[in-house]
Design a protein that fits this description.
binds zinc ion; elongated; alpha+beta; 2 domains
């Protein structure tokens, strides 16, 4: 197989789309498997001992649909793109839609990996593997590239660091339609929003990108409360208020939002990513959260 043919196959992966968004499953599995090869691991990777858990984590971190982490699907369907094979594939029963039974994948302890010819090209020239990685990254917003490469342990020096985005503030304001993500506060004075600010969920000094999915529009009050860790966002974008908050007005301005889903989220493509909310939860939030109301 020529390199041109290998590139053609990876560039034309059939990617399932849902409401205009591309499923991240096959690109993430491809990046994960390339990362393993670059670290000298075996071509074939066990489904139940390795891919099932690791790919689930990647899908939860970098996927759009948090509930839709089904690692068995790319593991099986990547075969159709003629870049991947599964050992003992003929022993696996399929559902009527052609998907494998997860119990079979586990019980027969099957493994999967890129075709030998492809692995050979990656092994003799790591730059070729980086090139394919770049095509896979194109399925994700540029702001996520660095973090994805780190997660799959592909050296990040191959990718240019992201320059600061001078439009971060206006991008986030537009994404949130100039409303506080928690309370919906929106007052304009002479046509300019007032007492409304933008913030990073994971700050730039900690490696957080200047991108909508790492930003929030918050009124001045909720901005301060968020930055000080009086509340945070759960992975499902519910407001979690610290147990340690008290005082007059806490009920009206903060406690009443506890357990509520963020009320004024932007379009789904700009939803805060779990990777960033998780950072805030672990590093800023003065937990634990209050008891469920
Ligand atoms: Zn607010």
């Amino acid at each position: 197989m020529t390199r041109e043919e290998i590139i053609r196959r990876f560039k034309s992966l059939r990617i399932w789309k849902s409401s205009g968004e591309r499923a991240p499953h096959k690109p993430l599995l491809t990046l994960y498997a390339i990362g393993r090869l670059l670290h000298g691991e075996n071509r074939l990777i066990s489904y139940s001992n390795d891919i099932e858990d690791n790919l689930t984590n990647l899908l939860r971190t970098f996927g759009q649909e948090r509930s839709n982490d089904q690692p068995h699907l790319p593991f099986w369907r990547l075969q159709n793109d003629k870049v991947w094979e599964v050992t003992d594939a003929d022993r696996i029963n399929e559902t009527t839609s052609g998907d494998p039974y997860i119990t079979d994948l586990r019980n027969y302890n099957v493994s999967g990996g890129f075709l030998e010819e492809i692995v050979h090209e990656f092994q003799i020239d790591a730059n070729f593997a980086f090139k394919i990685s770049q095509y896979m990254l194109d399925h994700f917003p540029a702001s996520m590239h660095q973090e994805i490469l780190q997660a799959v342990e592909i050296p990040t020096f191959v990718i240019e660091p992201q320059p600061p985005n001078p439009n971060f503030q206006s991008d986030v304001m537009n994404a949130y339609k100039e409303k506080c993500a928690v309370c919906g506060f929106r007052i304009r004075l002479e046509n300019q929003p007032i007492a409304l600010e933008t913030t990073h969920i994971k700050p730039p000094e900690a490696g957080g990108p200047d991108a909508e999915e790492n930003g929030l529009a918050l009124c001045s009050l909720h901005h301060e409360l968020f930055n000080k860790g009086a509340f945070t966002l759960s992975e499902n974008l519910h407001v979690l208020v610290s147990k340690h908050t008290k005082g007059k007005g806490t009920g009206d301005w903060l406690k009443k939002f506890h357990g509520e889903k963020m009320k004024f989220p932007p379009h789904q493509i700009y939803y805060p990513r779990i990777h960033f909310t998780d950072w805030h939860f672990k590093n800023r939030f003065r937990g634990p959260a209050r008891e469920k109301i």
